[in-house]
UniProtKB/TrEMBL annotation:
Keywords for this protein: TPR repeat
Pfam families in the cross-refs: ARM_TT21, TPR_11, TPR_16
Protein name per Swiss-Prot or TrEMBL: TPR repeat-containing protein
Keyword Lipid metabolism attributed: no
Source species, domain of life: Bacteria
TPR repeats by residue range: 109-142, 177-210, 333-366, 367-400, 401-434, 435-468
Keyword Acetylation annotated: no
Amino acid sequence: MAVNDQLHFMPLDLDTFAGSERFMTGTRLGAAFSQGMRSYLRAAYVEAIEHFKAALIAAYVDGEEQAQIYERERAIIYLYIGNALAFQEDWEAALREYLEAVQTDQQLAEAHYNLGVAFAARGQLDRAVAAFRETLEHNPNLYEAHFALGRCYQQIDDAGRAYIHYNSACNARPQAAEPLYYMGLMHQEHGAHELAQKCFAEALRVEPTFISPDSSAAEDALISRSEEEVAQWYYRLSQALKQQNYEEDAERIYRALLQWRAQEYPARYLLGNLLARQRRWDEALEEYGNIPPQDKHYVQARLRMSAVMRLLKRPKQAYDLLFECAKLNPGNGMLFLNMGKLLYDMGLNPAAARAFERAVQLLPNDPHANYLLGFIYNMLGRENWALAAWRKAVELAPNAHSLRYDLGYMYVRRSRFDLAANEFTHVLEHWPEDVETNFMLGLCYKELSEPGKAIPLFEKVLRRNPRHAQALYYLGACYLQIGNTSLGKAYLRRYDHLARQNETLTNLTGSRRRHASNPTNAPGG
């Protein structure tokens, strides 16, 4: 529920004479407009409206060149008629004039703003918000529009956007106290009295003569809430600010919560995540490190800390951190999974295998854990075990196409071309243009004595990479296999020519390297 039941905004006036001097003298239009402004400035609004309408009529009927006005000038007159009606609380009529203004000159920011004022006065907050946002499209630094959006969003209980626009209003007009005051009311309404008092104090600092526009609002906002409800307000506001990419403000709210409740460990975890995303590693580690073992975020915080240390090239320190955590949480599979990665980084593959084995015991349905176990088995030369682990991983994640490719490659190494072809076929359904998958599937069909299926795959490889030597060789062999001797020999001759080119290039490169490393081999040396 909002602080106030109704929103009150003042329509904006313009520096009407700027750029319009040419029609201000010597014409009925100029005379009528001048009279209208004089009446408007002394609050004789009925009289002002008559003069402004006379000015619009004169613009149409006067034949003098000086009496011709631009769209901007006509829109300004509509805007002042709307203002005169608004000051008389005739919002329906004012709305019609503001609509005329924005239709006449869609770039006039003040007209969009006053249209928003009229919608807000009629309780149409969704349309008011749209009009104020359109205002900022034409004048992003207009204080009044940011402040009005803050009030509207506060009314509909969208705390994040309200906070952002109040903040923007403060930036647009640093000496203005009112956005700070309403920001304080928003905090106070949700029980965040510390934040509220900071806002009120800051309001008086920037504008010492500021008087609350509604003293009863501050009294009404003094609602007693439980500490948990207040804490949830901080979280909710921080989350809303992060979603709008206002991370600096979200950080400020988390720190305010922690200043109030130092043992609010979820806030420390979320603040650590925020700092880590900004690559403020040391600060992130400090926040994560303050989370004690009894808190539910402890393990996840330690995992995040180890990830940061791994990025900082400190794998031993990262491993020791997780090892200590695992002693307290021996049933957490993610700890062992990440310990295995760190052991692999350090070149300790047998130890990494033991860590991955434990991870798979604890996370039997995790395809990533099974994949990593198969990977380390493969590194250790345990191909049968690697195959079993990868089969399980594919069973758990049938759409993991890169894993299917690895499994297919393993089948090829073991001459199980039928099983390999099945895996590569699945991969090509999703990566039809992948050169190496086309080649591997072609190789499988060639070995399965199905050259008719292999040939189009090898040809596709060569269209993408004409210097793919193995594809040339196997394509020639397949054509020979089906009895097309001339074409088969042609591809094999291309293969021999490419192989000789590659051999010559290798020899030249090696010769250059030898000359570069031994100056006595250089000509004339």
